[in-house]
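[Discussion] Sanity-checking designs against the backbone

I'm trying to build intuition for which residues belong where. Below is a structure token string of 455 positions. I'd appreciate it if someone posts a full sequence so I can compare it with mine line by line.
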């Protein structure tokens, strides 16, 4: 492992995140042959985008990777992404009959294997572009929901334009998930195939600032809003304004999208810290703490107010963090961030907790243990408590109905209160998984298509 932080970050795919990678075609075919080809395809029922899992797995078993890739692309616009970041263990693999008396078929690894083969071989889906319908659809946001909807609508013959606020497409896939877990080359490859379908992607367009929703409605026949929930949540404790405190959004965006791992060569560097504390227990917290290690931290610590059993992060991500040397401090909650005389973080004061009765989430509520506190020395604090709806777009559309948390209200088909305007992904459901956002994009694209053809 390279000692330079930039090299450590770029070479991160060689680390523990790849330990479970399927080792070549023979291993993939062997795993695929474990599939029982059930008549009742429960694995498909567990997939939010309804990938034809038994069919593509059967082609892997036969050694026909081109056919497997064709089947994947027919139902999933982003298989290389899903193979890496989807929680298969609680979705398709959780439904696998093989898992009743042993290990489920490794559907996620097979999907990743096929997608990586397709990218390496320069494979692209067969078939010509459909006959144009003459309809124009705008998609706001080039994240998983938006890209999925764009691909579906383009395959239906509609002219699709995607407006992305950042300077590269991918949304949370690019700015929120580190390179060592989801390589940018994978995102670029799958975005390129959408462009080949005829999808136009315009970056640096902030809907609500550079263009209004009203203007979009005048120019397009339909609009799908999928701008995510990118407003970070904070601790609301003393010291949170000190230098060296980051939201996980800012920390990961600077590193992943803006090249902060290059240090002084970057226009937006992040502080190089010896001791980093990350507050939270989700996948974003794991991404942040593992990124801190790659940036050169001597100690990278997760501080979480419940136990590991209640952590929302995937078991695989927790396992990888431990293998890489991350320290886990559990049943503690921040009280105050302590600073130096010149305004930099020097430590964080924590309250020790115990678990009480379950709260609304079903997890046991953390309760303070009176008089039990501890102080953890650190140079950087990353707050990874989740996100909420960003009001930049919605604040300029007063007729767009929102719920009490600021998320867009939709019906069961993705329609909003405004005619011709639809929404899906995190801006509707709150911060959730990539595959759930993709499922929203796919379902709502079908609704948009039906509505346009009925007009």
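Best answer:
Here's mine. Compare freely.
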């Amino acid at each position: 492992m390279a000692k330079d932080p930039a090299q450590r970050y770029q070479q991160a795919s060689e680390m523990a995140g790849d330990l479970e990678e399927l080792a070549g075609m023979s291993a993939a075919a062997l795993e695929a042959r474990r599939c029982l080809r059930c008549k009742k395809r429960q694995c498909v029922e567990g997939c939010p985008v309804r990938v034809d899992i038994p069919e593509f797995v059967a082609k892997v078993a036969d050694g026909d990777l081109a056919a497997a890739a064709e089947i994947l692309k027919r139902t999933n616009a982003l298989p290389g992404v899903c193979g890496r970041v989807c929680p298969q263990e609680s979705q398709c693999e959780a439904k696998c009959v093989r898992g009743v008396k042993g290990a489920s078929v490794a559907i996620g690894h097979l999907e990743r294997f096929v997608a990586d083969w397709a990218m390496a071989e320069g494979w692209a889906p067969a078939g010509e572009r459909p006959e144009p319908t003459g309809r124009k659809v705008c998609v706001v946001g080039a994240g998983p929901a938006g890209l999925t909807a764009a691909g579906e609508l383009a395959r239906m013959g509609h002219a699709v334009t995607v407006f992305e606020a950042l300077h590269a497409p991918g949304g949370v896939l690019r700015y929120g998930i580190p390179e060592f877990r989801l390589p940018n080359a994978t995102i670029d490859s799958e975005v390129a195939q959408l462009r080949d379908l005829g999808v136009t992607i315009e970056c640096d367009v902030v809907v609500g600032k550079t263009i209004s929703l009203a203007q979009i409605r005048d120019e397009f026949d339909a609009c799908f809003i999928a701008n995510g929930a990118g407003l970070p949540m904070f601790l609301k404790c003393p010291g949170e304004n000190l230098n060296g405190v980051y939201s996980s959004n800012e920390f990961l965006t600077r590193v992943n999208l803006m090249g902060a791992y290059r240090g002084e060569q970057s226009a937006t560097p992040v502080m190089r810290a010896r001791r980093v504390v990350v507050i939270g227990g989700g996948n974003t917290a794991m991404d942040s703490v593992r990124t801190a290690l790659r940036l050169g931290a001597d100690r990278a610590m997760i501080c979480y107010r419940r136990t590991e059993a209640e952590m929302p992060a995937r078991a695989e991500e927790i396992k990888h963090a431990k293998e890489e040397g991350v320290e886990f401090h559990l049943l503690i909650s921040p009280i105050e961030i302590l600073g130096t005389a010149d305004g930099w973080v020097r430590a964080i004061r924590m309250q020790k907790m115990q678990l009480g009765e379950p709260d609304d989430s079903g997890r046991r509520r953390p309760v303070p243990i009176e008089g039990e506190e501890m102080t953890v020395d650190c140079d950087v604090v990353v707050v990874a408590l989740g996100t909420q709806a960003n009001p930049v777009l919605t604040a300029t559309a007063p007729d767009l109905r929102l719920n009490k948390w600021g998320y867009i209200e939709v019906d069961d088909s993705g329609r909003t209160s405004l005619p011709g305007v639809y929404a899906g992904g995190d801006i509707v459901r709150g911060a959730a998984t990539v595959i759930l956002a993709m499922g929203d994009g796919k379902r709502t694209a079908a609704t948009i298509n039906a509505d346009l053809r009925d007009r």
